[in-house]
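Lecture notes, part 5. Sequence design as translation. It can be helpful to think of inverse folding as translation between two languages: the language of shapes and the language of residues. The source text, in structure tokens, appears below.
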């Protein structure tokens, strides 16, 4: 990441909005923004599937695994303002292929830490789990507040956007889908 370019761009923005960038509170803003971008965009170029390589085999477990309320922060690629919320990740292992629970949260973080669309983020999480674990089913639900809707435009501060990506048995078996939805609601 070219932090110097970011610093120069932020200095240009401050100049363009006609604020005194030499004012005490703004003097270090370009550097701080560059450091922040380095952190919040650390998922760029990262393959989320790498976080799932630790697969435990022969666990003799083929029932629902759900990690819910995984907090994330991302950046809307249209407006470069945040969206944030919770991801709920469920899968049904096949042939005892399970992964560490924290690995699922790492996939969410990897996908969120880049300029993103919530819809794409949801699909990328499901695809990574489906590709690596080859489970019987995957269900990913993401609930987020989109600051581009809260701060500007329509200014809807209480609205949340919900997206889902469903694969395998969760798509074909209404009972499995209902089970995961009920667990997420509780």
């Amino acid at each position: 990441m070219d932090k110097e370019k970011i610093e120069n761009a932020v200095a240009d923005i401050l100049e363009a909005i006609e604020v005194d960038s030499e004012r005490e509170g703004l003097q270090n803003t370009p550097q701080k923004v560059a450091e922040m971008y380095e952190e919040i965009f650390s998922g760029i170029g990262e393959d989320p599937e790498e976080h799932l390589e630790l697969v435990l085999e022969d666990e003799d477990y083929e029932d629902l695994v759900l990690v819910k309320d995984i907090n994330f922060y991302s950046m809307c690629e249209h407006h470069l303002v945040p969206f944030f919320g919770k991801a709920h990740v469920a899968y049904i292992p096949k042939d005892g292929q399970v992964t560490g629970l924290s690995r699922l949260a790492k996939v969410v973080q990897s996908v969120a830490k880049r300029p993103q669309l919530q819809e794409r983020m949801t699909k990328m999480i499901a695809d990574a789990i489906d590709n690596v674990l080859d489970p019987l089913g995957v269900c990913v639900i993401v609930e987020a507040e989109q600051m581009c809707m809260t701060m500007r435009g329509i200014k809807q501060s209480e609205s949340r956007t919900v997206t889902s990506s469903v694969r395998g048995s969760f798509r074909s078996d209404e009972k499995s889908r209902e089970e995961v939805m009920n667990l997420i609601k509780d």
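The translated text above is only one of many valid answers, since several sequences can fold into similar shapes. Strands lie at 55-56, 65-76, 82-92, 98-99, 115-116, 137-146, 161-168.
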